[in-house]
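Schema walk-through. Below, the input block comes first and the output block second. Nothing else is stored per chain. Lengths vary across the set, and this one has 178 residues.
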Amino acid sequence: MAVSDFPGHALDCERITHRTGANLLLVGLWAAAYPQVMTAITILPTGSRSAQVDPSWVDIYGHMNMAYYVKLFDDLGHDILADHGLGEAYTRKFGFGLFTVKAAIDYLREVTADAPLTISLTIEKADSKRLWTKLEMRHSEQGYVAATMAQLAVNVSLATRRAVVFPAELDAVLDSYR
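--- output ---
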């Protein structure tokens, strides 16, 4: 699968532009800015995390606003990727970050205030510079899938703002997905 497999996607992976920089792995900074979200998060075993729908995330329709689905996927997805060596420590050590270049979200069932959630991430595929993941949000007590997100991220040098090959140090983690 290549970036060109996504119809209408005009990104040249060798020329990542400044607009993707907002998707950098900055969970620690985000957590400082939005502590109310991070306090609702509990660490589970590798591959999943739990959260609870904060009543302030509920919109006029009585369910969690769509922006918070994305926010939970993004924040907890970064946290789960850290379990695979691709978190904040990776960014600090190598000066690289995963920039999201494609995300497709399916909202399947609503969740309401105080609902317990489990977010899981599966690495679907990797190549020398890209990582495909799938995230799933489940209601922890009722077991139903509330939403899914398929995501494509590119490994980018923060110095050059260009796509770069994953370091050999990650071969043990990523080779099984190549």
